[in-house]
Amino acid sequence: MKNERVYKMSFAGVYPHYITKAEIKGRTKEEVDIIIRWLTGYTQDQLQQVLDNKTNFEDFFAQAPALNPNVSKITGVICGYRVEEIEEPLMQKIRYLDKLIDELAKGKSMEKILRE
Asked: What's the number of domains the chain is made of?
């Protein structure tokens, strides 16, 4: 049930927190958007539409054009869980995004964050 609440949360409601976390550490909204687009395959216009429509996380990932084929390279701990071991597919995708934003805030280069 706890996960269900997260899935129904508006992506637009959490998005400003991603930006704030990045900007506090000297990173930019543009970098946050690049990460989101890299992970999901959304274009900038599609991302803006998701935000305008207040799409929830469940639909955000269900409607994503294409999850990046390199997501398996996203490893490590976020919120006390190893992202590569999370069994619930939707929660794993949400945590992938959390992990990438966390890496941005910690000062990693965009090349490393985007697994290039």
From this structure: 1
Please answer whether residues 51 and 59 qualify as being in contact, where contact means their C-beta atoms are separated by less than 8 angstroms.
Answer: no
pTM for the model stands at: 0.94
> 81: which strand partners?
78
CATH number for the domain harbouring residue 63: 1.10.8.290
Q: What is the domain extent for residue 98?
A: 2-113
At 77 the three-state DSSP class reads strand
Distance CA 102, CA 56 (A): 21
The contacts of residue 24 (CB under 8 Å, 6+ apart) are 105
Mean pLDDT by 10 residues, the chain (116 residues): 84 97 97 98 98 97 96 92 94 96 97 95
Nearest to 42 by CA among 116, 113, 101, 97: 97
